Amino acid sequence: MLTHLDSQGHATMVDVSDKALTVREAVAQALVRMRPQTLQMIVDGAHPKGDVFAVARIAGIQAAKKTADLIPLCHSLMLSSVKVELLAHGDDAVQITARCKLSGQTGVEMEALTAASVAALTIYDMCKAVDRGMIIESVRLLEKLGGKSGHYKAEDEQ
Question: Is 29 helix (H, G, I), strand (E, B) or coil?
Answer without folding.
Answer: strand
